[in-house]
UniProtKB/TrEMBL annotation:
GO biological process terms held by the UniProt record: chemotaxis; signal transduction
Coiled coil residues, start to end: none
Top-level taxonomic group: Bacteria
Entries under Pfam families matching the protein: CheW (PF01584)
Protein name according to UniProt: CheW-like domain-containing protein
Segments forming domain CheW-like: 16-153
Gene Ontology CC terms, in alphabetical order: cytosol
Amino acid sequence: MVQPGQIAPSTEGTAGDDSLVFRAGALLCALRLGEVIETMRPLATHPLAGTPAFVTGICIMRGAPTLVIDVARLLGGAEARVTRFVAVRTDRGPVALATGEIQGVRAIGTGAAGHHEALLGEAPARLVAGVGTIDAAPVLVLRSMRLVPDEVWAAAAATAVPA
């Protein structure tokens, strides 16, 4: 059962095209729906020492400590206004992405990220699966499974308090 704010996983075999589109500063970004757990208002976040600037800290999401990553900073941009959290699946558990306004769910056709290096600017290609367009504006389709470097997970584990 999908609760308010949650995104139902796509039931189609080609779940790759439907994406949650959101702002990250001046950038328009998207995540494949299969990687999105839910969207929510920003939660109270506690700083985490020893992490890169794009790691805002840790929040308690549905009773569990969860890393918070600022997508605008991650992609090389300046600090941007955060209006939503997008919870995503990773191999090591959920991560909350701090984003701007949610634009909705759209089908986005993409080209390989490597073919669009000029559009990516400072955004590392390892973070971007492809580049699509909405109304002639570029949309960076992110690879959520690869957003969190190992050293960030290690810093988070070092601060975890056993229950």
